[in-house]
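Supplementary Methods. Inverse-folding protocol.

Structures were first reduced to a discrete structure-token string of length 363. This string, shown here, constituted the complete conditioning input.
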């Protein structure tokens, strides 16, 4: 046993919830952002502003035409796998071999591909790290093992993992459509909490394929956390804090939350209010990429995803036009209400002595 521990330490193989559930999951979201999400944004910009370079096919592969954005989106599997490998501190030969593992897992996982990529890439990466530099023909053995394990596990696990993820996502979306008030609260609060915790709400939403009303509730919850913390901590953090939290991440407050959990009350309560308003009153839906559901106001990706969904629905004939009510709902849910409700609720917490000056100061 001691020999195994020493080997794992030498190979930097750390079997832990932090390494796999925080580091790898967070990196996977970045890989998705740099492929699927950017591709969707490019396609949307091309269609809305009639940019020929972005709307015309730039490549044809197996009789399938790809735009610039389409090429970026098609690389989501490899991008996720390489990002995961980077988080797991893979040596170069392992890292580059994960391109194939990610492509196969995403392709065989179908709509639930991100979850398949997460599991397969972690296992393939750790196997590759274990064999790396253990032989005199490392340049052959390491890629063969990493790619072999990646493709083998993709064939064995990816279809089932993809189906499981999509089934769970479908249940959540079905429940939200059936009970928009209660599920609006639940999804908004839980995904919002995940966004502020050191895990990836974006990767969770992507893995579950969370779109529709449930996706709209997720956007509401994430926005409540980001805009809420940005505005109610303005006195302590000024403009830099407003920008870094409002369009960056509310995760910056995690250290302060550990010191005083009461500062989290206002954003969580706000998300419990805006979530059902999004689902029941404004019928806010995320019909763009599922990863956008967990991004909130980070780079305004959540809002761009909602807008991309509107454009998609119009193109498919399921929506006639983008209405004033659509815009009012999006702006109120994502920006105005969090900016008003969070400081008000936090003021009550201050009156009760639960929160005091300096509790939300970013260092």
């Amino acid at each position: 046993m001691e020999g195994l521990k020493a080997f794992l330490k030498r190979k930097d193989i750390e079997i832990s919830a932090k390494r796999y559930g925080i580091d790898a999951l967070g990196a996977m979201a970045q890989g998705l952002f740099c492929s699927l999400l950017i591709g969707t944004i490019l396609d949307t910009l091309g269609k809305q502003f009639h940019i020929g370079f972005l709307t015309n096919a730039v490549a044809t592969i197996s009789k399938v035409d790809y735009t610039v954005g389409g090429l970026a989106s098609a690389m989501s599997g490899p991008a996720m796998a390489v990002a995961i490998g980077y988080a797991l501190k893979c040596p170069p030969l392992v890292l580059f071999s994960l391109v194939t593992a990610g492509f196969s897992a995403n392709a065989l996982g179908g709509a639930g591909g991100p979850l398949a990529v997460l599991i397969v890439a972690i296992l393939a990466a750790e196997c590759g790290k274990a064999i790396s530099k253990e032989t005199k023909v490392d340049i052959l053995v390491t890629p063969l093992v990493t790619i072999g394990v990646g493709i083998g596990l993709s064939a064995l696990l990816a279809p089932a993992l993809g189906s499981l993820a999509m089934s769970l996502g479908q249940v959540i979306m079905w429940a939200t459509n059936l009970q928009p008030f209660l599920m609006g609260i639940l999804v908004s609060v839980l995904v919002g909490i995940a966004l502020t915790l050191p895990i990836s709400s974006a990767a969770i939403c992507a893995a579950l394929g969370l779109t529709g009303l449930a996706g709209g509730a997720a956007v509401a919850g994430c926005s409540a956390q980001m805009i809420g913390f940005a505005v109610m901590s303005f006195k302590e953090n000024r403009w830099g804090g407003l920008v870094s939290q409002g369009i960056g991440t509310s995760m910056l407050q995690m250290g302060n939350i550990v010191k005083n959990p009461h500062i989290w009350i206002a954003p969580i309560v706000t998300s419990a209010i805006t979530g059902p308003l999004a689902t029941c009153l404004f019928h806010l839906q995320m019909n763009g990429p599922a990863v956008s559901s967990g991004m909130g106001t980070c780079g305004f990706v959540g809002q761009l995803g909602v807008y991309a969904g509107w454009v998609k629905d119009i193109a498919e004939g399921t929506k006639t036009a983008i209405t004033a009510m659509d815009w009012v709902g999006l702006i109120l849910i994502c920006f105005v209400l969090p900016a008003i409700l969070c400081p008000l609720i936090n003021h009550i917490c201050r009156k009760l002595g639960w929160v005091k000056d300096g509790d939300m100061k970013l260092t």
